Amino acid sequence: MTENIGVLGKKTPQRTGVERVVNAPLPTVYGKFQAVGYLDHDRGDEQVALVHGDIGTERVLTRLHSECLTGDAFGSQHCECGDQLAAAMRAVAAEGAGVVVYLRGHEGRGIGLLAKLRAMALQAEGLDTVEANLALGLPVDARDYGVAAGMLRDLGVESVRLMSNNPRKRDALQRHGVQVTEQVPLLIPPCESNITYLRTKRERLDHNLPHLDAVAHWS
After folding, report:
1. Is 78 annotated as a binding residue?
2. What gap in Å lies between CA 70 and CA 79, rounded to an integer?
3. Full-model pTM
4. Quick one: which residues bind GTP (predicted)?
């Protein structure tokens, strides 16, 4: 916790870390969830964990889902994000218990919505997703998973089965003190609109996407 100097010269505490603010029932097409709302005092972001069933503490089926307006809300086929979110919520409901942590501030792997759209425009001109970010002078991946780890700890989760194809996400979560006992693939059938993007994720960002070999005929 840090301190601010007030108007009368007195030191006043400033909150840091993640704080649980509200629990609310959230019935969805996938099942009944509890929406647990958090405030990230360090970044100012509002975050939410969708909790289904009695999750316990160990080997909790978990998805850390980075915010993607174009994929999650608009059904973009440029990426597979919207389908991954739906698949994760279905998997948690089928399991009977689990958590989907929806991470705001992660748009475009952390560069923000407008920058992501600029990068998408460059990709339409022939750059891949890594080249586009670098051409804009932006990091390839600026995401931080400390707030996700803090939310999981608040929920009592000590270890997870992580639904992700990204080993860097697994490693980051473990660095923040949450054990990953298993990495569960979350493979979405590709389409012609996202095959190049997905191949770049596999070849340049180390994502484990073996199912892309079945569509080698797409250029």
Report:
1. no
2. 9
3. 0.89
4. 63-67, 84, 107-109, 129, 164, 169
164 is in an annotated binding site: yes
Cβ neighbours of residue 63 closer than 8 Å, sequence gap 6 or more: 84, 85, 88, 91, 92, 98, 99, 100, 101, 162, 163, 164, 186
User: Tokens 């600029």 label which residue?
Assistant: 118
The pLDDT tens digits of the residues spanning 184-202 come to 999 999 999 999 999 999 9
Of the candidates 128, 141, 170, 199, the residue annotated as catalytic is: 141
Round to whole Å and give the CA distance between 97 and 34.
11
pLDDT of residue 195: 92
Ramachandran angles phi, psi of 18, nearest 5°: -110, 135
Instruction: Answer yes or no: 90 catalytic.
Output: no
pLDDT above 80 for 179: yes
Number of other residues whose CB lies within 10 A of the CB of residue 120:
18
The active-site residue, picked from 40, 118, 143, 199, is 143
Among the listed residues 64, 137, 77, the one whose alpha carbon sits nearest the alpha carbon of residue 106: 64
**143 belongs to the catalytic site:** yes
Burial class (CB in 10 A: 0-12, 13-18, 19+), 145: buried
Was 64 annotated as part of a binding site? yes
